[in-house]
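As the next step, I needed to go through one protein, both as residues and as discrete backbone shape codes, included below for the reader:
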Amino acid sequence: MDIITQLQEQLNEMAMVAVNTFGTLQRDAPPVRLSNTYPDPLNPNPSPDDASKPQVQPNPGAAPPQAQPPAPPQPPALDLAEHPKAMSHALVLAAKKFDALVAALPLSSEEDQLKRIQDLQAENEVVGLELQKQLEAAELELKQVEALFNDATDNCINLKKPE
């Protein structure tokens, strides 16, 4: 695989990692309050002592509440602090690999590049002339085949024997 294709693939990988990183950061970001004077949409009527909630009084003759059975074990939670670090690390590694590929590009002066362009243009002209000759030969052969085909069809239609 040539260096340009490797650069293109690495750039695509960097773009994918960046999009996934930014998407994950947006998805996992905690809510942020715009201003202290802006009301909290989750708690529109905050009060220091929740007097609005009725206090539950235990019944004097009722049996004491039974202990709840232990909850089933929860799967390990995703470490939201480490996940962005890991994704950022992957993005940095992809960028470093891209930089290494760029550093591996051959260096040449402008004169060398112009000479290479002229050489490629001359090679293109030679190949173009050869292709043109082949096209002309193919067209001539096609005309000959068409003439033979027309003769053959005329002979078949007129029931003539070939000469």
User: Anything to note?
Assistant: The chain has a mean pLDDT of 81. Helices lie at 3-28, 82-103, 110-158. Residues 1-29+80-107 form one domain. The longest helix spans residues 110-158.
